[in-house]
Design brief:
Strand content: 15-25%
Structural class: alpha+beta
Number of strands: 5
CATH class: Alpha Beta
Oligomer: single chain
Order of helices and strands: HEEHEEHE
Largest sheet: 5 strands, mixed
Radius of gyration: 21 Å
Number of helices: 3
CATH architecture: 2-Layer Sandwich
CATH topology: Translation Initiation Factor Eif1
CATH superfamily: SUI1-like domain
Shape: elongated
Number of domains: 1
Length: 114
């Protein structure tokens, strides 16, 4: 059986209800708030990272592409590595001051350094 046929079942095996209709999948579009409306937290974390310090940027509301783009810009500005995982932007090292300065310079109004 090909993979296309398996996908067409959408997880329903059998229903005895004569009025059963499969629910249509709704995809909610993420929108990116303007920088002035964002409430971003910047904090330092060392847990679960073998004692290495990581600057963590949280509460950014936007699409995954925008998070990746913001992470790339912050990493370039700080001159370090990092990643975007689980909706959080990680920048290696203790770069809280640099990150907050960059965010404020680029229009983010509410930046909280924890």
């Amino acid at each position: 059986m090909s993979k296309n046929k398996i996908k067409s079942f959408s997880g329903i095996v059998f229903s005895t209800d004569p009025n059963f209709k499969p629910e249509a999948e709704t995809i909610e579009e993420e929108i990116t708030l303007s920088p002035a409306l964002q409430k971003i937290n910047v904090r330092l974390e060392t847990k679960h990272r073998a004692g290495k310090a990581v600057t963590l940027i949280e509460n950014f509301i936007g699409t995954e592409e925008d998070k990746i783009d913001l992470g790339k810009k912050l990493k370039t500005f700080c001159g370090t590595g990092g990643s975007v995982k689980d909706g959080e932007i990680l920048v290696q090292g203790d770069n809280r001051d640099k990150v907050v300065a960059w965010l404020l310079k680029n229009g983010f109004k509410t930046v909280k350094k924890v």
